[in-house]
Design a protein that fits this description.
Number of domains: 1
Distance between the termini: 25 Å
Strand order of the largest sheet: 4-1-5-6-14-13-12-9
Low-confidence stretches: 251-255
CATH class: Alpha Beta
Largest sheet: 8 strands, mixed
Number of helices: 7
Structural class: alpha/beta
Number of strands: 14
Strand content: 15-25%
Shape: globular
Oligomer: single chain
CATH topology: Rossmann fold
């Protein structure tokens, strides 16, 4: 059984909620849970643990997925907020620990939307805090009303990993549910896809491991099933990720 560790989305105490108003919540979005779940694969939500408790849990995982959610705090890449986009510094710190563990222990990583942006920051890159504010010539990458029905074309880097992975497909469309994006690309990252209308980076891989073992996409493949138009195959990239997730033999101390 492959164990896929999924970083939590976090919610904080909120008196306007009906339940758990004074509690912190760790959760997994339902479409993501269904996307990751298949025969022989067990998605496991990684709670907000600390120290040895977190390390012991991470040690049981065969790969890691970082899901979407709140913005990355600008301070994470050395900037100050330019407006209301202050991000979620607490979640940044929680996920950076997990990502650092994954990279140091040579584990497969798949970053989706926020997870993709987190990876760029981890490797020393920066983000547009708000694409329409900081890159006014860009197309609209998010529409709150259309949400996962909002989409645009992408261009796959010729001869690159995703180009080869999707070589038998003619569709080059993805959904688009983000207002932030890669500004400065992180160290040792190879661009796999861009938006042809404005050059925004849409996918990359980390070059210092096997091609595709550490990879991120700006779009949400877990939402593709719901699209009213034809999008790219959502499962190829997940199958690629799983191909690196080999269940390891673990030893346990006797008591």
């Amino acid at each position: 059984m492959i164990k896929v560790g999924v970083s939590s989305c976090l919610m904080y105490p909120d008196v306007n909620r009906i339940v758990f108003i004074k509690k912190y919540l760790c959760y997994l979005e339902r479409d993501m849970a269904r996307y990751l779940s298949q025969e022989g694969v067990m998605p496991i939500l990684i709670p907000d643990l600390e120290g040895k408790a977190l390390d012991d849990l991470l040690n049981q995982m065969d790969g890691f997925v970082f899901q979407g959610g709140n913005d990355i705090a600008p301070e994470a890449y050395g900037e100050k907020p330019i407006g209301r986009w202050i991000g979620d510094a607490y979640r940044d710190a929680y996920e950076m620990k997990i990502l650092d563990y994954a990279i140091r222990h040579e584990k497969p990583v798949l970053g989706i939307c926020r997870g993709f942006q987190l990876m760029n920051v981890y490797f020393g890159g920066s983000l547009y805090q708000d694409i329409q504010t900081q890159k006014p010539d860009a197309i609209q990458h998010r529409d709150a009303e259309s949400y996962d029905q909002w989409h645009h074309r992408i261009t796959l880097t010729e001869g690159g990993l995703l180009d080869r992975l999707h070589q038998h497909e003619t569709v080059r469309m993805v959904n688009s549910v983000h207002h932030q994006g890669v500004k400065q690309l992180g160290r040792d990252l190879e661009v796999l896809a861009t938006c042809p209308d404005d050059g925004i980076i849409e996918a990359f891989l980390w070059k210092n491991t096997e091609p595709g073992k550490v990879i991120g996409v700006q779009w949400h493949p877990e939402f593709f099933y719901n699209s009213q138009i034809q999008l790219m195959d959502a499962h190829r990239i997940y199958q690629l990720f799983l191909s690196f997730c080999k269940p390891s033999v673990r030893t346990y101390a006797s008591h």
